[in-house]
Amino acid sequence: MAKDKFTIGGLCSGVGGIELGFKLAGFDIAWANDMDKNCMITYESIMEKNHYIDKKHQKINEIKELPPPVTVLAAGFPCQAFSIAGERKGFEDARGTVIYDIIKLINKYKKADMPKVLFLENVKNFKTHDGCNTYNTIVKKLNRLDYSVYTKVLNSCDYSDVPQNRERTYMVCFLGEGGWNKKEFEKLPDDLRDTEIRKHIKFFPKTVKFHLNYPQKNKNPVKLTSASVRNTLFERNVEEKRYHYSESAYLEMLRKTFPEPKEDTGYQIRRVYPRENQSNLIPTLTANMGTGGHNVPLIYQKKIDLWRKLTPKECFKLQGYGKCAERLPDNNKVANGQLYKQAGNSVTVGVIERLAKSIFKTLNDND
Question: Is 310 a residue whose pLDDT tops 80?
């Protein structure tokens, strides 16, 4: 029996990491949206097509016509308001109210046209922000729209093939199963959860099947200890300006902190100090890594005894864009600072692909 064809529409799409992951899992991209012009340019370069609604950048509340119905509506909505780096202002920050714009848009569809699945992504701290009140408020609103909300925090190094330490909250919601969260399955002990959840498959068939189809954690995560991994991710001929951190005070600080630096791990310059990842991974890539001495990702090259900053292309590869990272726009179209920001704000494509494959299987499971 032929598999059904499923579509995805994106809000807060950025450069299209979520859409790309779903595309790799077999979904068709119907449309995308973001308010950032630079993101739209990079999106089109990566995808080789502009899926943005009306072919322009705009806020969600500026979309004039309701986009065509899709199987999955996805959104990596702004995280700064909920992250530690963003001082966790939540709904007090205008960016924190974008989730309400998303909910309003969904509510405009007739029940028959509403997305069958919602896919939402945010920072790790989103779930615990304000004593869990932010998360619980959104869950209740989604439940009222008759969506279940299945949430887990995943680390990119555990659920993809890139060596980056990146924990993010992923929420997968199925239409018609809004009573799911009243069961409070998350509070059950791990050894009882599967057994108890299976009992409710008649009432929540999609959410239960998704739970049973959930991606498995990597048994052997990819790490920088592998020379082949480093050769795949890191460029050989890099501009001299990337070695800025092998000069002056930065070099003294790095050598003092790490007298015997290693090639098989990642480093990061914080505001006033450097740090090394102890798990042979690249530290979490952030949106401000291109703005000077804050969260700057570094690697050490033993052959020439120099430290250097990762390039934008390397950052996109560390977000799982693979060969698509070769299609980044030229600097005369999008500045490097913007590319760093885009990579830091992006999702890890491999994590999305695995989750999307589980969603695809769940939607196709007619048993």
Answer: yes
Other residues' Cβ atoms within 10 Å of the Cβ of residue 127: 19
pLDDT in tens, 167-203: 999 999 999 999 999 999 988 998 899 999 999 999 9
Mean pLDDT of 320-346: 96
Residue holding tokens 């064809």?
5
The burial class, CB within 10 Å (0-12 / 13-18 / 19+), for 199 is: exposed
Q: How far apart, in whole angstroms, are the C-alpha atoms of residue 353 and residue 10?
A: 15
Rounded CA separation 277/165 (Å): 9
Asked whether 63 and 56 are in contact (CB, 8 A), the reply is no
Q: Which has the closest alpha carbon to 15: 357, 288, 349, 360? A: 349
The vertex-12 CA angle with 209 and 311, nearest 5°, equals 105
The one catalytic residue in 79, 157, 173, 324 is 79
At 255, the amino acid letter reads: R
Tell me the per-residue pLDDT of 123-158, one tens digit each, with 9 for 90 and over: 998 888 778 888 998 999 999 999 999 999 999 999
CA distances in angstroms from 38 to 15, 33, 341, listed in the order given: 9, 12, 10
Task: Name the nearest CA neighbour of 223 among 298, 268, 267, 282.
Answer: 282
Residues 118, 148: Cα–Cα separation, whole Å? 9
- CA distances 243 to 189, 196, 247, Å, are 50, 55, 8
Which of 238, 350, 220 lies closest to 301, judged by CA?
238
Interior/surface letters 95-118, b for 16+ CB within 10 angstroms, e for the rest: bbebbbbbbebbeebeeeebbbbb
Radius of gyration of the chain (CA): 21
Whether 79 sits among the annotated catalytic residues: the reply is: yes
Predicted confidence at residue 247, as pLDDT, reads: 63
Structural domains in the chain, CATH included, are 7-220+347-364 (3.40.50.150), 227-334 (no CATH)
In terms of Cα–Cα distance, which of 49, 5, 1, 12 is closest to 27?
A: 5
Q: What is the pLDDT of residue 337?
A: 93
